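call fold target=rRNA methyltransferase 2, mitochondrial
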Amino acid sequence: MSGGTADFFYREARRLKYVARSAFKLLEIQKKHRIIRPGASVLDLGCAPGAFLQVACQNLGPPEKGGVVVGVDIKKVKVPADHCDHRVRTIASDVMQMSHAALASFSASGKGYSVLISDMCPSVSGVGSKDAALSAELGMCALHLALGQSEVDDSIPETGGILLPGGSIVIKLLEGEDSQGFLKLCKGRFQQLHWLRPKATRSTSREIYFIGKSRVTKYSPNQEK
């Protein structure tokens, strides 16, 4: 809310039974990039309060299509009653302390995910450069988790990580010098790279989403954006 008045997305979230207005951010990403397909395995990092879980489950298709949505947050998150079914589960844990194997084991195949979403955000200090750097650090952790690299460089095999070949990532960042490095790091590792500032983002926010679509099976630094 802004100035004590519920804005359009807040009202729409209540009307459509989403737990937060942030649902419209992932809805827009999905509409433009279709990262979640029927039967997908989705990992949602920083899943509180659960709006992304709702949107992800909606895009899995009917239950007979299969798929799974796994939400991880440092605090306990209850699976929303609306828009979610038995394919959604949450884990209360610090993702930084979980092993790749442990996280992968919760996926539909037990081997990894077709979509990794990071909506993690640091406790903001109000100092723009500091907050952007902390946000980029969290984003980098999500990227390392996806690609299986302790350092994102050419010497690590591209078959590691918990993001399956052809899979996609969505990482929330705060705009700054540190966020711009994600394009360089991910070039050649995904078929397409995009930035998106969803319409549901508050005007005072510096949030922006980095999207990497279709992870390639072999690293190619000359891959087109």
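return ok
Residues 128-147 form the longest helix (20 residues). The mean pLDDT is 88.
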